[in-house]
Amino acid sequence: MAASNITSTHPAAFLLIGIPGLEHLHVWISIPFCFAYTLALLGNCTLLFIIQADAALHEPMYLFLAMLAIIDLVLSSTTLPKMLAIFWFRDREINFYACLVQMFFLHSFSIMESAVLLAMAFDRYVAICKPLHYSTILTGPLIIKIGLAAVTRAVTLMTPLPFLLRRFHYCRGPVIAHCYCEHMAVVRLACGDTRFNNIYGIAVAMFIVVLDLLFVILSYIFILQAVLQLASQEARYKAFGTCVSHVGAILSTYTPVVISSVMHRVAQRAAPHVHILLAIFYLLFPPMVNPIIYGVKTKQIRDHVLSLFWRKNV
């Protein structure tokens, strides 16, 4: 088998176990995963189609939403097809370099997602706190710069990881106790001094989550102050209503991260499959629910979807 052919530095391929301890349930576990992935594909592709087709939706809020939909599509498609291949066909082998590419895309697009959520918080801040200057602040060139900055930050932070992993000798074998190539799961197989990888991985995660979440919270503190100063209760409800979808997206993204982080520290002796299921939940839940949140709570998108169904029925 190719997975056992060891070169001077690394195996030709890794073997992904899937979900350790639940191998006998892989087929059954794959059913909700496949359903969630299908919903994610349909929902995000529908969002992109609606935003692209309707010129009225070519506004900053919806352009950021389109970025989020693309990121969610990439995040879920980076891992789920291979995961389902493991569950259905026991296709556990993954080429060493394909593993590094999967890991790079997975972590890079997770960082991009955090950046886009921050940009959407900035969009809501400008819309509510500086409504008269909204169109002059959030111009097309600025949106492009924000998108490029999100990509640049993610690629810059994640580019060192594949090169760092290439230099290790993997003397602990080619078997990864996971269903996709996650950074620390690969590092655990390496020999030698992996402290820099451990520290770098934790530092990047803390930097992204803490910094982005801090600015999101600050944005909503200013938004709350501005909304409470509005004269009528109806105006307050309307202003808050424009933020509900974004708050839902933030909760759907960061809640699994916080739960997984707490579980790693509080329940260190928990079975490995608990942590892996939480990690999969983080990858699948936001791409699945974000289109639903925005489809239900955003009137323009909801009306467009209903009109599409109405035309089909007529």
Walk me through what this model shows:
The protein has 314 residues and is mainly alpha-helical. The chain has one domain: Rhodopsin 7-helix transmembrane proteins (Rhopdopsin 7-helix transmembrane proteins, Up-down Bundle). It contains 11 helices and 3 strands. The chain has helices spanning 26-53, 60-89, 96-129, 134-137, 140-158, 160-166, 183-187, 195-228, 233-266, 272-297, 299-313; strands spanning 13-16, 93-95, 175-176. It has a 3-stranded mixed sheet with strand order 2-1-3. Helix 3 (96-129) runs antiparallel to helix 5 and helix 3 (96-129) packs antiparallel against helix 9 (233-266). It is globular and about 65 Å long. It comes from Muntiacus reevesi.
Beta-strand portion reads under 5%
Specify the overall morphology. Answer: globular
Outline the biggest β-sheet: 3 strands, mixed
What do we call the CATH homologous superfamily? Rhodopsin 7-helix transmembrane proteins
Distance between the termini: 57 Å
Estimated structural class? mainly alpha
| Mean residue pLDDT | 88
